[in-house]
Design goal:
Elements lengths: L17 H11 L10 H8 L10 E5 L5 H9 L3 E6 L2 H13 L6 E5 L12 E6 L8 H8 L3 E14 L6 H10 L4 E2 H10 L2 E8 L2 H20 L4 H19 L4 E10 L6
Helix pairs in contact: 1-9, 2-3, 8-9
Length: 268
């Protein structure tokens, strides 16, 4: 899995050993929430958008098993294309869409978020929660712009420094995991340089992180009780420390949700 730039198995943890990657997979594969986020934050960001056309097409990039995909489906009548590079997530998304009677509106497939064929006329909205770090914020925005219909929007959450002087432990972790991570004001400049106008943004609250890390902490405790494998125990300790880091960093970083619109009069 580590051969793909979008592999969630390495993700924010940097280049993990094969054993650690396997442990992370067992730890999280069946969770619907695969990154810090919540229905409330999805709805808040969606509320910043202008009205979508009646026959809107949405692309959900790095969908995972579809937590936000189904939130989007509840917020509008658009057709949604959900893409992720990990087949188990797409299988889970398809199964849930069928169970909810949404298979006609939600198409899920294994595909890179940088390798999508846009529909004629372009997408009316591109959405990406907690996944753009896999390919880079600027890289994604520049790639997606030509895929959008005129005046269409992107909703994307990006790991963001909230202070220019973060704690050393947090800085060391993110320098390894996502060295391209920026301050909010730098992200705004990137947005504008990529040919978009910012419609709104907000830092995601601590509850979005607890929704992600809380179930992981419970799973770590149960996995630790069931194994004597030193490699697995070491990996579990690493993932447990990652969860503590957010709390110990006291707001030095979070995900910031950006809602942006393709600016016209610029070359794609």
């Amino acid at each position: 899995m580590s051969g793909t730039p979008e592999s969630r198995i390495i993700g924010r943890m940097g280049e993990l050993s094969q054993a650690a990657s396997g442990t992370f997979w067992k730890l999280t594969v069946d969770f619907l929430c695969q990154s810090p986020g919540s229905e409330a934050s999805t709805r808040r960001a969606f509320g910043m958008l202008p009205a979508l056309p009646a026959s809107a097409r949405i692309l959900d990039c790095g969908s995972g098993p579809g937590r936000q995909t189904f939130d989007l489906a509840s917020l509008c009548s658009a057709r949604i294309e959900a893409v992720d590079v990990l087949p188990p997530f797409i299988d889970a998304l398809r199964e849930r869409a069928e169970a909810l009677g949404l298979s006609e509106r939600i198409e899920a497939r294994v595909q890179s978020m940088l390798d999508v064929e846009p529909p004629p006329g372009g997408f009316d909205l591109i959405w990406c929660e907690g996944a753009v770090y896999n390919v880079g914020f600027e890289n994604a925005l520049r790639t997606w712009r030509p895929w959008l219909a005129a005046g269409a929007c992107v909703g994307v959450s990006e790991a963001t420094w909230m202070t220019p002087s973060p704690p050393a432990q947090a800085l060391a972790f993110w320098d390894e995991a996502y060295p391209a991570m920026q301050l909010h004001e730098d992200n705004v400049r990137t947005i504008e340089a990529c040919g978009y106008e910012l419609l709104g943004s907000f830092p995601q609250p601590a509850g979005d992180w607890r929704q992600y890390y809380g179930p992981r902490e419970e799973r770590i405790r149960s996995m630790r009780a069931e194994t004597n494998d030193p490699d697995e125990l070491e990996a579990l300790a690493h993932f447990e420390a990652e969860g503590r880091l957010y709390d110990e960093s006291e707001g030095a970083y979070t995900y910031v949700f950006y809602v942006v619109r393709r600016a016209e009069g610029l070359r794609s």
